[in-house]
Amino acid sequence: MVRIAVDEREKPSGVPDELRSKGASVEYRVLEVADYIVGEYAVERKSARDFVSSLFSGRLFDQAYRIGESYRDKILVVEGSLDDELRRSRNPRSLWGGLISAVLDFGLHCFFTRDAKETAEFLITLGKGGRYKGHRGPPPLVVRKPRSEDVKRLQESIVSSVPGIGPRTAEQLLSHFGSLRRTFSASVTEMAVGAGIGKAKALNVRALLDASYKPSKGVHSQTQLHDEA
Question: For 143, which of 6, 40, 116, 182 could close a Cys bridge (C-beta 3.0–4.6 Å)?
């Protein structure tokens, strides 16, 4: 039997009910990141509309980074048709550019399903066919990625946490400026031209550094994100 950990906020999606109807063992949890944990795989599910919204806002890249901090393999399932979203978009090419960045810069494995039933089929197939390296017997329900405390990785992690900045771009910035202090003190022009990351990404860094801090009121940001899906 396939065992799947499901975030509590996924109950209204219909996917957990479909999983049960197909014989999967569903275990509800409050997951810090991702919506489903299948063996060593962390799976984030998004509706087509929220997928597009999160691409343009940078939320998707932030989520991908945080999932990668805890799990070896991260998967994005986009549920529903992108046709309407592409028609609404003024620049469809930017959508594909964001998707390419999610795959190449952030290591997201992206899959597309039509509805909750198909998403459940995908998760069960993943659970039956996924291989857990170096382990005999059934894979554990949750596999944590070992954390490295070395300074280099910590520096890259801090820069990569900026929405829209992936591991490759973080390494590019740090290699050019030499330290976190010099990286975050650089002007937009120095980052865009000097480090060669382009104006859009440089503006993302500057926008985060200049943004006012707004304390939360006891509601986790991921809860709000899932409410939008």
Answer: 40
Low-confidence spans in the chain with pLDDT less than 50: 132-137, 140, 146-149, 218-229
Contact residues for 88 (Cβ-Cβ < 8 A; gap 6+): none
pLDDT tens digit sequence for 47-68: 998 998 888 788 888 888 888 8
Task: Say whether both 7 and 101 belong to one domain.
Answer: yes
| Domain containing residue 80 | 3-129
CB 36 within 8 A of CB 24: no
Are 164 and 61 contacting, i.e. CB atoms less than 8 angstroms apart? yes
Return the beta strands (E) in 9-104 as ranges.
25-29, 36-38, 41-47, 73-79
pLDDT digits (tens, 9 = 90+) for 94-119: 778 888 888 887 888 999 999 999 99
User: In the structure encoding, which two tokens stand for residue 33, read together?
Assistant: 């990141």
